Amino acid sequence: MSILKVIKERRSVRKYKSDAIPDDVLQRVLEAARFSPSGKNLQPWKFILVHDEFLKKRLVDASVTQTFIAEAPVVVVACGFPDQCYSRMGNYMKSWAVDVAIAFEHLVLQAQEEGLGTCWIGAFEEKDVKSILNVPEGVKVLALTPLGYPDENPMPRGRKSLEDIVSYNSY
Ligand SMILES: Cc1cc2nc3c(=O)[nH]c(=O)nc-3n(C[C@H](O)[C@H](O)[C@H](O)COP(=O)(O)O)c2cc1C
Description:
The chain is α+β, with helices and mostly antiparallel strands. Helices cover 34% and strands 14% of the residues. Bound molecules: flavin mononucleotide. The site of flavin mononucleotide has 11 residues, from loops.
């Protein structure tokens, strides 16, 4: 599939089948994250795959009770390393959140290519997620996503027009 088709056909999926994900499919989804670019190639990330039903339910509680998260066979939790990243991005910020976000989106797009659904979850309580998954101090949790076969076909959400978001030669 062309990359633009994958990008345009991706949706946030909020209803999942419980069907297992074949291992070769899961490996390709993770490879997409692994090959992501990052500031100074420091790769300041780790992805926790949560299969355990009890832990998935606890992650739902830590994510404002978004129950669909636990429907999927796997929940991916993206973590970043603020102390091991490019620290002068734009000469004003650390790169870890950008690095992890790019890698996570690679994962999301490969999932789409494989017929899997995802949904970026940003509404979560970080301290609770860290406690549930034994994430060490100094490591940040950026996002979660359920990963599984969609049990719905969501309508596309609108986007701003190119005219609204692009300018040429000046802001
Ligand atoms: C940073 C970020 C955080 C998000 N958090 C949530 C969330 O907690 N729960 C949810 O259902 N969707 C969440 N979304 C999904 C957005 O609502 C969704 O991407 C947007 O409405 C566009 O819809 P689409 O992904 O189907 O194109 C999040 C998306 C992003 C990028």
